[in-house]
Design a protein that fits this description.
- The mean pLDDT is 95.
- The strands form two sheets. The protein has a five-stranded mixed β-sheet, with no helix packed on it.
- It is an alpha+beta fold and 71 residues long.
- The two termini are 16 Å apart.
- The longest helix is centred in the middle third of the chain and has 9 residues, at 28-36.
- The protein is built from two helices and seven strands.
Amino acid sequence: METLKLREKDEFINLSQLLKALNLVESGAMAKEVIDEGLVKVDGEVESRYRRKLYDGMIVEFNGEQIKVIR
């Protein structure tokens, strides 16, 4: 499982930002597209909000990968 460490000053990261930060998608538009298509899960459930706030301990699944958000 891969991890994404939040910046010290940040409480959360948006789902679309996480996908872009880890180079899982090429752009924000592509992030929105894969989320709209139901290809992304957050904590085991399909997520449809591309601005979903992700906090410490949450797990994102996309394209066979799992990413855990850590503080």
